[in-house]
């Protein structure tokens, strides 16, 4: 194989390849045998007819295409090894020349940027002391009691904080609009889950009563409704009041928290839980501050090509997520009040920083030999199997993608290393 490398721009190269005739012919022969094995000739079992008969029935274009599939991967692997490339993405492949005897290929690929690590040991970052006030504990208990509240039917006008069940239909200029109708819809008044003015408009309505509510849609909304007036015709079926239980030992028992059966025990439990939460948050902040310093100390030049690819990837991911929630991408842009150009610019702002952080942490993992080989992966899986009294194969099935678990183990080693070598 003869190959020449050309730098197209910083971080992007093209490698032109002339495949050896013998290798190309071997790939074609392998492709022919694979295709011929499925060819039926009267009087012979599939693939067992004389070669001349089989070749007459296998199109040469199919052989070439199959041979290309066979030879591309090993050829690219050889290109990567020969030129010591570190590809960041899969290459773009072009066939520059093809015949029975000759094959020319061109691989364009974006390379992982060079990373020059700076100081990553002996750094300092503030670590706050976790503190929890009596007010914090009281608020946590109040939220827990609110979550345990019951909704009770009441025969009175609805007020903020009540939950109503209603039918509604929206009209613009006396014409119903799409998505503006629902039956037996449950809504907590004051939750701000509807357009401004709608929930307030239901205050004072009793079960069995109807009411028309006039609202104006926000300017940051789907284009067909944004900033326009509308009328909702509503029929309220039920009004329910949230009854929050009074704090007592009996109430605490009903909360169902293991080994917590008194008010004093609940106070102690919530204080310990909140302390752990704050301590974990302080630990995360401390670690993230150290990582930020390590990344800032490193030198990485990321080409626009890589940033553009990352922006395109994240934009596509955003589209899929939005569409999975039942919105079109344009509706999402309308609701968030941004153009496609503004979205891309916002993505771009974070892309370079995120890429630099990722690349620096990868380089640090390599420099300090913090990778997880197959033996270590198997050992950690065996530990899980012993811990949960499961078979190793069942643990692997439960974990799903083992490469994701391998990366989690590596991240744990990386964090342990950074915390052990910095203050």
Task: Give your account of this protein's structure.
48% of the residues lie in helices and 20% in strands. It has helices spanning 21-36, 51-57, 60-83, 134-147, 198-201, 249-255, 263-297, 304-324, 329-336, 340-367, 374-387, 392-399, 402-420; strands at residues 2-9, 12-19, 92-98, 103-110, 115-116, 150-153, 163-172, 175-188, 210-216, 229-243, 299-300. Strands 6, 7, 8, 9 and 10 form a 5-stranded antiparallel beta sheet that branches. The chain starts with a strand and ends with a helix. The model has no long low-confidence stretch (mean pLDDT 92).
Task: List the topology elements.
Layout: E1 2-9, E2 12-19, H1 21-36, H2 51-57, H3 60-83, E3 92-98, E4 103-110, E5 115-116, H4 134-147, E6 150-153, E7 163-172, E8 175-188, H5 198-201, E9 210-216, E10 229-243, H6 249-255, H7 263-297, E11 299-300, H8 304-324, H9 329-336, H10 340-367, H11 374-387, H12 392-399, H13 402-420
Antiparallel strand pairs: 1-2, 2-4, 3-4, 5-11, 6-10, 7-8, 7-10, 9-10
Helix pairs in contact: 1-3, 4-7, 7-10, 8-10, 11-12
- Report strand %: 15-25%
The number of distinct helices, counting runs of at least 4 residues, comes to 13
- Terminal residue distance: 53 Å
Order of helix and strand elements from N to C terminus: EEHHHEEEHEEEHEEHHEHHHHHH
Helix/strand structural class: alpha+beta
Q: Mean pLDDT, as a whole number?
A: 92
List keywords for this structure.
423 residues; alpha+beta; 5-stranded antiparallel beta sheet; 4-stranded antiparallel beta sheet; 11 strands; 20% strand
């Amino acid at each position: 194989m003869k190959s020449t490398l050309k730098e197209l721009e910083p971080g992007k190269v093209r490698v032109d390849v002339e495949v050896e005739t013998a290798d190309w012919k071997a790939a074609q022969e392998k492709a022919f045998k694979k295709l011929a094995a499925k060819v039926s000739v009267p009087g012979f079992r599939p693939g067992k007819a004389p070669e001349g008969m089989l070749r007459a029935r296998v199109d040469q274009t199919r052989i070439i295409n199959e041979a290309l599939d066979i030879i591309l991967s090993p050829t690219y692997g050889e290109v990567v090894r020969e030129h010591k490339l570190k590809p960041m993405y899969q290459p773009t492949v072009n066939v520059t020349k093809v015949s029975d005897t000759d094959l020319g290929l061109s691989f364009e690929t974006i390379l992982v940027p060079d990373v020059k690590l700076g100081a990553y040991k002996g750094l300092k970052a503030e670590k706050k002391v976790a503190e929890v006030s009596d007010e914090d504990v009281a608020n946590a208990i109040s939220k827990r009691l609110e979550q345990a509240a019951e909704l009770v039917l009441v025969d009175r006008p609805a007020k903020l904080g009540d939950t109503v069940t209603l039918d509604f239909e929206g009209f613009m200029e006396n014409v119903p609009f799409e998505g503006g109708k629902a039956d037996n819809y449950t809504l907590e008044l004051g939750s701000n889950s509807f357009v401004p003015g709608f929930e307030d408009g239901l205050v004072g309505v009793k079960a069995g009563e109807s009411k028309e509510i006039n609202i104006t849609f926000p300017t940051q909304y789907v284009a067909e409704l944004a900033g326009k007036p509308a009328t909702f015709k509503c029929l309220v079926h039920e009004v329910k009041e949230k009854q929050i239980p009074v704090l007592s030992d009996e109430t605490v028992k009903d909360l169902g928290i293991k080994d917590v059966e008194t008010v004093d025990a609940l106070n102690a439990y919530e204080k310990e839980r909140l302390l752990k939460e704050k301590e974990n948050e302080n630990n995360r902040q401390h670690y993230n501050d150290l990582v930020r310093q390590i990344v800032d100390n490193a030198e990485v030049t990321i080409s626009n090509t890589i940033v553009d690819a990352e922006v395109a990837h994240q934009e596509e991911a955003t589209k899929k997520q939005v569409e999975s929630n039942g919105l079109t991408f344009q509706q999402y842009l309308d609701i968030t009040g941004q153009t496609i150009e503004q979205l891309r610019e916002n993505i771009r702002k974070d892309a370079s920083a995120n890429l630099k952080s990722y690349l620096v942490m990868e380089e640090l993992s390599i420099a300090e030999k913090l990778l997880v080989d197959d033996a270590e992966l198997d050992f950690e899986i065996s530990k899980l199997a012993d811990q949960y009294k499961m078979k190793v194969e069942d643990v692997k099935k439960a974990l799903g993608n083992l490469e994701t678990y391998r990366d989690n183990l590596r991240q744990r080693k990386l964090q342990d290393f950074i915390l052990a070598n910095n203050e």
